Amino acid sequence: MKLGEIYAAQGNYKKSLEYLEQSLTISQQDKNPLSQFWPLVRMGNFYTQLGDYQKSIKFYEQAHGTAQKLQNPQIESLSLFLLAITYFGKGEPQKTIEFAQQGLKISQTTRILPLELIANFVTSLGYGELNNEQKAMEAAKATLEVARKSKNPSFEKDALTFLGHLQRKFGKKQEAIQTYNQALAIKTQGKVVGADSAIYAGLGRTYADLNQPNEAIQNYQQAIKRFEDVRRGVQGLTPDLYKSFFQSTVDFDGFTPAKIYRQYADLLLKQGRTAEATPILELLKYQELQDYFRITKDVDSPAKAQIIALGKELTELENIPRDKRKEHQQKRIYELRKIQEKLIQEFGEFIKNPEVSQRIAELRQLTEGQNIDPEKQVRNLQDNLKRLQQDAVVIYPLVLKDRLELVFVTPFAPPIHRTVAVSEAELNKTIEKFRSDLQFPGSNAQVNANKLYKWLIKPLENDLAEAKTQTIIFAPDGKLRYIPLAALHDGKQWLVQRFRINNITALSLTDLNTKPQGKLQVLAAAFTDTNSNVPVPVGEQKVIFQGLEYAGKEVENINATIPGSTKLVDKQFNLNIVYQMNDYSIVHLATHAAFANGKPEDSVIVFGNGEYVTLRKVKDWNLSNVDLVVLSACETGLGGFFGDGKEILGFGYRMQEIGAKAAIASLWKVADPSTAQLMQQFYSNLASAKTHITKAEALRQAQLSLLDGNKSTTANADQRGGIIVNIKPGTSPRNDNATNGYSHPYYWAPFILIGNGL
Fold first, then answer.
1. 496-548 pLDDT tens trace
2. d(Cα 345, Cα 480) in Å, to the nearest integer?
3. Which of 171, 219, 406, 489 is the most exposed place for a label (fewest CB within 10 A)?
4. Greatest Cα-to-Cα distance within the chain, rounded to the nearest angstrom
5. Beta pairing class for 628-636 and 662-666
6. Phi, psi dihedral angles at 624 (to 5 degrees)
7. pTM assigned to the model
8. Dihedral over alpha carbons 38, 44, 46, 47 (to 10 degrees)
9. Rounded distance between C-alpha atoms, residue 446 and residue 164, angstroms
């Protein structure tokens, strides 16, 4: 038993646990309850030290039961105090006080200094968590007084450390610094791995509170150095224990090692010391990966790097009829299924992580069920991807406060998870800058496009290559809905030059692989009267719309390109069009659609005769025979304000809700002539008898035609939108000279495909 404590002090936790377990096994063979008590206590202490409070409670409860059998008030009260400390670690102050008071009631019959010390200590812990400063400080000072009476330097050091934590907690910063330094000055016998880490961490937090970053950083460095010594020793233990040490072990200030590492990194970044912060951030990223998507020892190392390859191998083997499989093939199938079972289990643990599950629940509530649910719908996604036969994958980002989580779904293997060390604030700031770049054709959009690429795509580069990806199906979260994934830049080329891309909603899953109708027919309608001024309420705003100069040419070209199509212009384009739509495979509306920020139901579609309809009313339509609805003149986030982006998802969801398989809409006010050209190319691609390409590929090829092939230098290009009010300065291209044709993503990137891309 003593050997177990020695190894723990040296940081060899694996060896320590072995000896402690041996000691417990031996004691259980002895019928004397007293000989069983101390091994149970030491096992509880071991797990408390590593943050596995559930296991430590189990051992302390057994110790308490043993003490009750002995009717020994000293060890019974000790076991109650240990339970009180453990419940503090679990964040349950009421139980901390409850067990402390039970222990005090029993221990009052004995006057033993160590028991007095721990009794006062646990009482202070509980009241501190309940923010009762007076009672917490009284008990902490009583703890220190008893510690000094004991003449034990370790007791006094611990008591001072805890007093310093309370002083900092209750705003007495300078007193806390003095107390921490008193604790540091006390020398104890024997070297213990991780010693003084709590003191240095407390000093770091206190100096940070006082806005003294240099002193804070120096003390954090000392704390991290000691935590690293402990972390190296814990690595030999089970993954669960390793995780609990890093994420759950709290000092008596209520801070885990993970929080301290993050505070240190944040402080370094604020001081511009990025090079020093990077290793800490990488460690945190590694920890998150281990915690949320840990591939443990029973999954071999090749599986960690070859999840998709192994999934493909399993698929190929399973395609062999069972009665024709050779023995080694059947054996390999069982091996691969075991690996996949473990990976599925681990993905389930990631999804159930409180932060992740909370974010998914928020998304479901925010979007009224429009966003896909990775926990419930992953298997449907995989099945759809197999049926698609488009070498397609799904990228599902989850934006959390301190990081970005990427879920990557392929047809072949359990979902892959990657953690990206970028905060929600930094991500959203970059998104807003990028969107501003995209709306100004004279800007250099590649800088922020590359920044977002490094966060959203680069972590998945190897996975994309392994899956031989040609199509990315994107399920954006939050403000990511305001930008087109196609316009991200890898430093050499735009993403649209590498992949087909379409967005997805929850309803997309029901018809993601439904093939379009064999006969292509388009109902093409346009609002062309540029002299009209149509007032329309959009949410809480009143907006004036005018007709689109190039919209008439746009629908004429469609009508000429697609035989059997119908063209409706201005007064012909009225509410009665609703009753014609379901006779066509595509409904193309060259008119205004304004997405009301944060209120999808208030978004409007304007008709050519001045009438309009909200998405609330659109819910009554029936487009069950329609493969695609195109709105070629949308504006998102009217007035330039950002919301949560649910209005964009809401439009695509509503079109699918009323039966349409997919929708195309624009993310910002687009240039009128370039849009007419893009749409002409899009329909030419669809109508080509030689290619028979999908909607997603037709859109991609049309975008590439503007990006690569168009050398028009039209200055003063009219902005498709025709909105007279609420145009932010600097977003209109009317006075910009287009010196490089339509190669800027302002012209080709605004259109996104939502839903079935076939």
1. 999 999 998 766 666 677 778 878 999 999 999 999 889 988 877 888 999 99
2. 29
3. 171
4. 100
5. parallel
6. -65, -20
7. 0.59
8. 170
9. 50
